[in-house]
């Protein structure tokens, strides 16, 4: 029991803070996740396009509804997305869970150039393991320690 608490405490220290989203952002993320889930199920591109058109029509039919109805529809949409989640979703190869993830991670710049004399074309930004730019204000910053959850195939 003590070991569980220690692991939970260690994981809590490296978790990224959750981002507060507006209802419109939540709907956009739900739509994008629905399309990604659809991509895991539909192998043929024609089938994917047909089903994506139906999905877009469902989202467009509820555009402009009241905030209470939007909250209810958002909850129903998340539940439906959970029900249709693929058991082994498609994963981009360089993302966590992909076959290329951290295969050849770049060396830190201070190791490559110990004197601090960086070339002109050296990258000016730090990248997260999911190849997004590190920005502390977005809550996704790999400066320091990052918890990569391979079961969910994401970075927390």
UniProtKB/TrEMBL annotation:
Membrane disposition: Peripheral membrane protein
Principal subcellular localization: mitochondrion
Keyword terms, alphabetized: Acetylation, Electron transport, Membrane, Mitochondrion, Mitochondrion inner membrane, Respiratory chain, Transport
GO cellular component terms attached to this protein's record: mitochondrial inner membrane
Entry's localization field: Mitochondrion inner membrane
GO BP: mitochondrial electron transport, NADH to ubiquinone
CDD domains from the UniProt entry: Complex1_LYR_NDUFB9_LYRM3 (cd20263)
Family per record: Belongs to the complex I LYR family.
This protein's name: NADH dehydrogenase [ubiquinone] 1 beta subcomplex subunit 9
């Amino acid at each position: 029991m003590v070991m569980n608490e220690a692991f939970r405490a260690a994981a809590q220290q490296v978790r990224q803070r959750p981002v507060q989203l507006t209802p419109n952002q939540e709907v956009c993320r739900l739509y994008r996740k629905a399309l990604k889930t659809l991509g895991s199920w539909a192998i043929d591109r024609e089938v994917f396009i047909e089903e994506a058109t139906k999905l877009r029509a469902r989202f467009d039919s509820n555009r402009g509804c009241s905030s209470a109805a939007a909250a209810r529809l958002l909850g129903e949409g998340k539940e439906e997305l959970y029900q249709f989640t693929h058991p082994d979703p498609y994963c981009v190869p360089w993302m966590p869970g992909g076959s290329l993830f951290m295969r050849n991670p770049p060396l830190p710049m201070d190791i490559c150039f110990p004197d601090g004399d960086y070339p002109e074309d050296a990258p000016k930004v730090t990248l997260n393991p999911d190849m997004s730019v590190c920005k502390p204000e977005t809550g996704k910053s790999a400066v320091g320690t990052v918890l990569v959850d391979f079961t969910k195939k994401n970075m927390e």
